[in-house]
């Protein structure tokens, strides 16, 4: 049991050391990336919605 505890402590020390090496993004970079993702999702959803409506109308004309 004691060995397990020592392994856990060693692991957490190594995690802390590795986290210090991480190059964390600036708040400005995170906000910019988030905006790009949100805008991209909206553009793609409108594009797919337009295709869906167009295909729906075409099928209605063909069947109806």
UniProtKB/TrEMBL annotation:
Subunit structure: Component of the Sec protein translocase complex. Heterotrimer consisting of SecY, SecE and SecG subunits. The heterotrimers can form oligomers, although 1 heterotrimer is thought to be able to translocate proteins. Interacts with the ribosome. Interacts with SecDF, and other proteins may be involved. Interacts with SecA.
Topological category with respect to the lipid bilayer: Single-pass membrane protein
Cellular component GO terms, alphabetical: plasma membrane
Lineage, broadest ranks: Bacteria, Candidatus Methylomirabilota, Candidatus Methylomirabilia, Candidatus Methylomirabilales, Candidatus Methylomirabilaceae
Molecular functions per Gene Ontology: protein transmembrane transporter activity
Protein name (record): Protein translocase subunit SecE
NCBIfam families, per database record: secE_bact
Gene name of the encoded protein: secE
Functional summary from the UniProt entry: Essential subunit of the Sec protein translocation channel SecYEG. Clamps together the 2 halves of SecY. May contact the channel plug during translocation.
Top-rank taxon: Bacteria
UniProt organism field: Candidatus Methylomirabilis tolerans
Family note: Belongs to the SecE/SEC61-gamma family.
Keywords assigned by UniProt, alphabetized: Cell membrane, Membrane, Protein transport, Translocation, Transmembrane, Transmembrane helix, Transport
Chief location bin: membrane
PROSITE patterns in the cross-refs: SECE_SEC61G
Localisation: Cell membrane; Membrane
TM annotation in the entry: 30-51
């Amino acid at each position: 049991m004691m060995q397990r505890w020592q392994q856990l402590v060693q692991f957490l020390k190594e995690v802390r050391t590795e986290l210090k090496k991480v190059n964390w993004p600036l708040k400005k970079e995170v906000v910019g990336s988030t905006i790009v993702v949100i805008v991209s999702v909206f553009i793609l959803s409108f594009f797919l919605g337009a295709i869906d409506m167009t295909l729906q109308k075409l099928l209605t004309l063909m069947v109806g």
